[in-house]
Amino acid sequence: MASFPNSVNENEIGKAKFIGELLVPVAPFDQKSGRETWTVAFAPDGSYFAWSQGHRIVTLVPWSKCLKNFVGEGSTGVGPQQNSEGGTVVPVGEPREHTIDCGDIVWGLAFGSSVPEKQSRCVNIEWHRFKFGQDQLLLATGLNNGRVKIWDVYTGKLLLNLMDHTDIVRDLTFAPDGSLMLVSASRDKTLRVWDLKDDGNMVKVLRGHQNWVYCCAFSPDSSVLCSVGASKSVFLWDMDKYSLIRKLEGHHNDVVSCEFSPDGALLATASYDTRVIIWDPHVGTVLLELAHLFPPPSPIFAGGANDRWVRSVAFCHDGRHIASITDDRMVRFWTIDEKSPKAIAPLINGLCCAFSIDGSVLAAGSRDGSVHFWACPKGIASLQHLCRMALRRVMSTQQVQTLPIPPRIRSYLSYQDL
């Protein structure tokens, strides 16, 4: 049973609206491990939704068609085609449901696009095997064997096979600036930076984690990378210099998920210690803690096995809502100005979550290979919040603190009122 702060009546918390699910065919062998949906992802242009449905398979579904099916018919079953090359041939530019056989269990997924166009950082620009156009949409998959495979989303064709990790590639993230710089996080305790515009050459190995790296995320301006992992670790990296900026300390157990707010002013991290922490990444301070157990557990309890492990956290694109997936069979929707959930919904064995590009839908993957969808709680953002987001997209906390404005406004712009 979910636990909430005693100042909040559980009956006052709304119930999130369930809108549909994507299921996979059930076979006897599917009862074994390997069928988990470890990751879900939306294409940056909103054209596709992808999820690892278990047993090496990634399914890509046109998001508009998927959403229309939910609205018109409820849940949708998935029985897609495959081919021996790893995908189904699809006309370029025409979104169509198809699958990719990645050859091994898929742990990480990330869409990449060269829009907005940005040149490669590599010195040798005379010749490249691949030339990515603005209409190109790529899918990176992180596999159980340590490989990272890059696919053309429209054709299902394998473009690159990146081999350097020595253990499971747990997560992947593309720089949002269209540079096609890809970062992979692995259980081999490293992060590796790849330049896909330079034929997938590895640019840098980021070392510092003493244990598994679970997740990584770029800031919206692509200048900072957050990586989280076992042993309570939260690292921030300067992606211009490929150097460590700082370590954030505050969790009591493994940290398994992270994401920046759309304006880059906030960073959310999820941990097995039953908490989601909202940080100011510019100065490294804790702004808010979202507790999934009340009263708050002792560090000893939080640092061990408990039934409130937070598996995943996602920031909505409105900058106000956050979703979390926990082992207590619940998905929670939060707002950044409240310490208790705004809405909840049941979810058995949830593993991961992500918001759609417009922020209206949350997708959550589970251990049985299925994906469930909920409508994000609706609300109209205040003009103050919209102005704050616009300002924080171009100003750091340090810059805000130097503005000649009243302290109360400065505090609001710095998110210190959370």
UniProtKB/TrEMBL annotation:
Repeat region (WD), residues: 132-161, 162-204, 206-247, 248-280, 310-344, 354-374
Pathway: Protein modification; protein ubiquitination
One Gene Ontology biological process: intracellular signal transduction
Coiled coil: none
SMART domains: SOCS (SM00253), SOCS_box (SM00969), WD40 (SM00320)
Keyword terms, alphabetized: Repeat, Ubl conjugation pathway, WD repeat
Domain of life: Eukaryota
InterPro entries, A to Z: SOCS_box (IPR001496), SOCS_box-like_dom_sf (IPR036036), WD40/YVTN_repeat-like_dom_sf (IPR015943), WD40_PAC1 (IPR020472), WD40_repeat_CS (IPR019775), WD40_repeat_dom_sf (IPR036322), WD40_rpt (IPR001680), WSB_SOCS-box_domain (IPR051983)
Pfam families in alphabetical order: SOCS_box, WD40
Domain SOCS box: 382-418
Stated name of the protein: WD repeat and SOCS box-containing protein 1
Native source organism of the sequence: Oncorhynchus tshawytscha (Chinook salmon)
GN (gene name): WSB1
